[in-house]
Amino acid sequence: MIPGDGCPGVSVYGITILAVLVSLVQLSASTGAVPKVYASKMAGIVGAGSTGVQVQNLDSASAADITMDLYPQSGAAPIQLIKNASAGGSATFYLPSEGSVADGAYAAIVSAVKPIAAIARTEWSSVGGAATYGNVPPAMNVLVPLATKAYYGWTSQFSVQNTDTTTSANITVKLYQTGSSSAIVNFADTVLPGTSRTYDLGSSSQFAGVANGFLGSIVVTGDKNLAVQSFVDKVGGSKAVYAFSGLDSASAATTLYAPLVRRAFAGATTGISIVNPNATAVTVDIQYKYNPASSDLNNYTQSISIAANSSAVAYQGTGPMPAGWLGSAVLQATGPIVAMVNDETSSTSAAYNAPAAADGGKTVSVPLVRNKQTTAQLTTGVQVMNVGAGTATVSITYKSSGGMTYGPEVASVAPNGSVTFYQPSGPFPVGAYGSATVTSNENVVVIVNDISLTGAYDAAIYNGIKAD
User: Fold this and answer.
1) Helix, strand, coil shares of the chain as percentages rounded to 5?
2) 23-134 architecture in CATH?
3) Cystine design at 453: which of 47, 56, 311, 377 (Cβ 3.0–4.6 Å)?
4) How far apart are CA 176 and CA 185, in angstroms?
5) How close are the terminal C-alpha atoms of the chain, in Å?
């Protein structure tokens, strides 16, 4: 099973839940190193929560055993789970179904002798909240593109994992307000080996002096490699919640890509949160390119200035495009930046990190796809953006949880353009779930939008994982 099958949560409102963040380090099996997925736990936001971790075996020739080591935030001994994934297939760790795992707060390390890709999905069944997250590269200097405290009802919490399983990590956390170059919060802490610590801008003592209405960003540094992940929740019982990963400061780039942006298209509008980690101001030029499904077939541009060590939000609801516009965007800056994209309706919210060219590949792993799965009719759409110089021939092939292969579906995509593979319109059977692989003759970046067609659950987005 994966989340969405109606299983009850493992906790109650306001209590820490069992939830795992997954982040990926891509390693070649031929190097002799063990490919690992680091994971960092998030505490509960609204209602009872449950988490499933979907791990895709990128070896198309042979099966692989997948090991998950769960590290309690208390520092107790880790719990080990092992599952098998078929060649090119996936394995699911649905934590409420694991009898050896008690209610609590955990970090995790997922590993295999084959290259793997992984994501996690957490649901709060009492309100229908959901978030999917993954692909967090461990680093010693991590940028969190968005942080909020009672900002139009939205409040952030974030988790910091020490990926060193032998020695504690000393960390420093700095909070910056949008438009300001000076940190308004600066504190140090220690994270036990392998595990994580969770901080809530609404309730953690370190942020007690931060006024409601805060909007900004976070920088986390440490003497060990860290994995950082954030949830942002709309306080008051709404199901709207979204998740995204902290980004290695070394991954900042002068060009970023947003495969899905829109203004009042299918009821949703995006906002792009951009962080300038440089000591000088930058100018960001945003080029919006329409998707063929858009009701308005025009391209648009926008320019934003961001102060040193600060952030800004390009909100498409007040952007240059009209309502009904759907497309992708290219962000070009005068200095390296990082960014996150939030996609929101009146009752749902989802987010993904804006990839750089280095994140693009000719093969991209999609660990979770589905077509009207469960009574909630959980359904994905795979959005592919061509970041190459020439026209891309893009193909997607599916593999169900039962090991059956479907497809391929093929599309032609212009440079900086995008295409959507919507699973109810393709060969993937109704009721099925599994994984997919996107291939292309040009480098592409991918995001996956997971929604409930009945409205039972919140929307969720995750980044596809480069698998070249």
Assistant:
1) 5, 55, 40
2) Sandwich (2.60)
3) 377
4) 7
5) 29
Fold of the domain spanning 252-354: Hypothetical Protein Tm1070; Chain: A (2.60.290)
Q: Which tokens belong to 255?
A: 């060009």
Distance CA 447, CA 433 (A): 17
Burial 211-250 (b: 16+ CB within 10 A, else e): eeebbbbbbbbbebbbbbbbbbbbeeebbbbbbbbbbbbe
CATH 2.60.290.11 residue window(s) in the chain: 23-134, 252-354, 360-466
Name the residue among 184, 227, 191 with its Cα closest to residue 208. Answer: 184
List 437's β-bridge partners, or say none. 365, 397
Spatial distance between the Cα atoms of 323 and 221, rounded to a whole number of angstroms: 40
Rounded to two decimals, the pTM is 0.86
Q: Which fold has domain 360-466?
A: Hypothetical Protein Tm1070; Chain: A (2.60.290)
Tens-of-pLDDT digits for all 468 residues of the chain? 233 332 222 211 121 223 333 333 333 232 333 345 555 443 333 445 678 888 888 888 999 999 988 888 888 899 999 999 999 888 888 888 888 888 777 888 888 888 888 888 888 777 788 888 875 778 999 999 999 999 988 999 999 999 899 999 999 999 999 989 999 999 999 999 999 999 999 999 999 999 999 999 999 999 999 999 898 988 765 677 888 889 999 999 999 999 999 999 999 999 999 999 999 999 999 999 998 889 999 999 999 999 999 999 999 999 999 999 999 999 999 999 999 999 998 888 999 999 999 999 999 999 899 999 999 999 999 999 999 999 999 999 999 988 899 999 999 999 999 999 999 999 999 999 999 999 999 999 999 999 999 999 999 999 998 988
